[in-house]
UniProtKB/TrEMBL annotation:
AprE-like long alpha-helical hairpin domain ranges (all copies): 171-355
High-level lineage: Bacteria, Pseudomonadati, Pseudomonadota, Alphaproteobacteria, Hyphomicrobiales
Parts forming coiled coils: 330-357
Organism: Neorhizobium lilium
GO MF terms held by the record: polysaccharide transmembrane transporter activity
Keyword terms: Coiled coil, Signal
InterPro entries cross-referenced by the UniProt entry: HH_AprE-like (IPR058781), Poly_export (IPR049712), Poly_export_N (IPR003715)
Protein name per its UniProtKB record: Sugar ABC transporter substrate-binding protein
Amino acid sequence: MRKNLASAGRVTATFVLAATAFAISTVSSGAADSGYKLGVMDKLRIRVAEWQPADGSIKNWDVVGGEYTVGPSGAISIPFIGDLAAAGKTTGEVAGEIGEELRTKFALRNLPSASVEVAEFRPVFLAGDVDKPGEYPYSPRLTVLKALSLAGGLKRSEAGQRFARDFLNAQGEAAVYDSQRARLIARRARLLSEVGNAKEIEMPPELKNFKNAQQLLDSEASLMKSRRDRYEFQLKALADLRSLLQSEVQSLAQKTETQKRQLEIATDSRDKMSRLTEQGITNNNRLITLEERTADIQTSLLDIDTNALQAKQSISKADQDEINIRNDWVAQRAKELQDTEAELEKLSLQLGTSRQLMTEALAQSAEALKFDPSRQAANIKYTVVRDAGQGAKEVSVDENTELQPGDVVKVTSELLMQ
């Protein structure tokens, strides 16, 4: 009986371990290689883990993991590996080389799984006719206009040019707020789909005319699928565990019936032997043996009842865990939706303020009526100095051009304002 219980325990432990390994492999395989080529000053976050099939565990290479900066030579220095060339490679390529290096140096049977992500992109630099030239942190989809806004706009000049500078500053801030607002609207659409258990995200009316609306929705749809898969996997794991426990309860119930029948037989035999002993037909030894047999069966019945009760308690706990997971899912979606609505309201106020400042800036001068909002009448030239691996090259761009990490933006302003 105890062997059967131990076997059931091993089955349960194996199930939980397999579920854990599946979750880890899912997270590892979800890391996407964007194709971005690394460069000097990029900061990388590295994590390494290795599956140990012998004992079914995960070994974390914490001594190798951490944050690294691509040095002037284009390499990162990793313990046990040494200098590893990173410049000009993608995060996926670097991750693969780390795994291969560790397997080679330590003669590992299994290839360690390395995860490499960009913790911080190398900065961009603004020079020329900007208010605060210098180094600024890069963020994805950073445009020339947004970078100019980070640098305080155009350099302070004569009083007659002040309205143009104020207009450009306010317009840059409005562009940033517009982009943030679009992302929040896409997030809200995804949360509404999750709350309503929808399979797809509907295009919000506010984003129909937005340039990158579909890209934003595709990104949110990918996140929604990942979260939904993780949620459904947790529920399935609990359902499988509950099914396993219910099978154990049924098995214990069958054993209880068998033991009860044996107890009846043993009790009947003991009573008959007791009467024969009293009549002097047989000795006490056989009666004692039957009494011990009866006691063993009664003890076994108690053990079976105890194990069945524990299994039923585990089923109740699994039911409660499922309720908690479902409640937490709903509560988290509601909280995120509430926070998103609050951020949208705040951004709407900031956007309205920026547009009012743009209007006031144009009204500050009699020349405002001559100012072309497309800046065709204002001679502002943007040049990007970029090194794509074949030496630095200068490229003329406009304010909507997206920058890359490490770009140097030169701004030349020739505002012919009085």
